[in-house]
Amino acid sequence: MRRLPSLTALRFFEESARHMSFNKSALALCVTPGAVSRQIRLLEDALGTALFYRDHTGIRLTRQGQALHASLAEAFDVIEQATRIVIQRQTPRRKRLTVITPPTFATRWLSPRLGSLLQALPGIDFSILTDNTEPQPCSIRFGHQPQHHCRSELLFIEQHVLVGGMKLRGQQVETLLQQLPTLHVLHGKKRLSLWPDWLDAAGLPLAYADNGIEFSTLDQAIHAACAGMGLAVVDRNMISHELRAGALLQLAPTECHGPYGYWLEIQAAHEHEAEISALSAWLRNAAAAQPGGYQLVLA
What domains are defined for the chain? Predict the structure, then answer.
């Protein structure tokens, strides 16, 4: 049987020596300073030696107190590490699911909905990546047709509208097209057909789309439009916050849909995994909650 002083007293001593204050150690231990002082006295009586010098300036460790504190600090570190290991072994390891998405989708559609996602899948940690250098079980792809090497499911297609800064309210669209640059989005080093498609649907000359400023992502074009740098034809699904907040104004009622959209793609080997199925269900529900959302197309 081990012959040890009170473990409570040893703990109170180590805490007091670390803070060099009975008051601070009392706060850390959630007791009164008097309780700390009594435990220290009990320990000193048990050891037969003083551990602290006490005077009007505070407390200081005696030589015996310094030696005891050095050993106790190391011993408590070992105990803390041992108990942490036991706890970690009892705690189920959380699964991590990596999802590859286009940058604009991650920033403007998925990020604002992360709270809902984490609530729906509480046992999963997510890595949301926009770099698809390594294949992953699950990804979101921007495209106009399904892939045939995996399960490919259309979540929603783009709904293109003409937008600009709020200072443009009340002005004629053709006047604005003559005065302001058009903001274009590149895909595969080529302009997406957002502007020609929208101008054609609106019955306006396609020549308005000839010039303008080009961006590598839709998110960049949206930021430029918010800053009043020009007019943009963008996916309404990606600007819901800006429209509600008044940062962007839809300048004309004309809308055109597609041909591009966002596809959920799952590798066949992972199709029936529980976390993949749960994520798929959440994505379908979130997409269906927006106008023109979730349209089941499988390949």
Answer: 7-90 (1.10.10.10), 95-299 (3.40.190.290)
